[in-house]
Amino acid sequence: MTPSERKVLVVPCSGIGKTYGTVSREAAYEVTEDLRPGTTGLVALSLLVLGDEDARAAVRAHPAVTIDGCKLACAAKMVHESGGHVAQGIAVLDVYRRNRELKPQGIAELNEGGILLAHAVAEEITAVVDDVLAGEEGSTHA
Amino acid sequence: MPELPGRKVGIVACSGEELAEGTVTRLAALRVLQELRPGETVTICLPLFLAGGEGDRAFARFYPTIAIDGCDKRCAASATEQYSGKPAASVVVADLVSEHGLGRPEGARRLSESGRQAVEVTADRVADLVDELLGGQWNRRSGAFVEGAPATMTDQAPQAGCACGSAIPVQTVDVDGQAVSLAALPLIFEQFHGAGKAPGADVTRELLETVKIYNDVPAGIDEAYTVALAREYAAFCRQKGA
Questions:
Q1: Nearest CA in chain B to A74
Q2: If A66 and its partner were Cys, which of A75, B114, B146, B240 is the partner (CB 3.0–4.6 Å)?
């Protein structure tokens, strides 16, 4: 990924011990691998925690959508601390509140409700990605 | 009544989402936490060392910690050492894969067969390390083992532990003019107060012994700690009574 590429970064939290963390990661994979593979990129939070220069440069060069599994909002905070711009911070719990029928369970492996909730999160991210890229395109075609 | 955290081993996985090896670290950690050593391990999300509070950053000093990394960038080991405490042990999935002659793991989202094998060997190695670490006595102040000292175990009901959002409470107290952070002190005070123990010389001595379970109190300065604990506990009880 080069700074000049028009991309939106997707940064899931590294939630390891709770279901919502798994949902955040699954949603990130769905966006970056299935829904918008050409216009999005995944950034691992561990690299930002370590202060990896390539990862920091990437979040400074591209807008990011963060996905957090709990209120501690590690993904959003780390992007901010790395000097990046959070175009939209998505909280999995908020998406669940809007989709109560999708009750997620499982950590290593999600149940069907979890997979469907991840899909709902992914759809919201995709809408943000499209908006951000449309905005950027508009600003370059004055 | 609040429960004081018992003796456990901490596990911090890099969880690197962009690499299959990162997925291996996460699944191996979960296998240890949930299946292999559920009563003896606890985890925390790596970013909490920065995004969390002082209690989160106390993690690797409070628990002897095993860092599990996917690659030789060693994000988990390095960040843990930088922000919390030096890990007591460290494993790198790529090294274990090579050591066991496994194929390179593939599929960050859905692991390949070689990835699943890597989860098994990584989890087994970490479980062995947990057993080794529980055999030594951990100094929670210095974040290192006490040489030659036997383990001190506590009885705990087995359950998998995620420490996110339940950071180790730390309170800073003035001990003879020096600010000293004492792990678990708020919980200890809560527990004593809940048991109806009023401030007094006997209770202060008991407090000091309890504090020593979770913190390294240097030899020869018990009196200074006693004064500090008596003062802080009296203030705590006054506040509770107010």
A1: B51
A2: A75
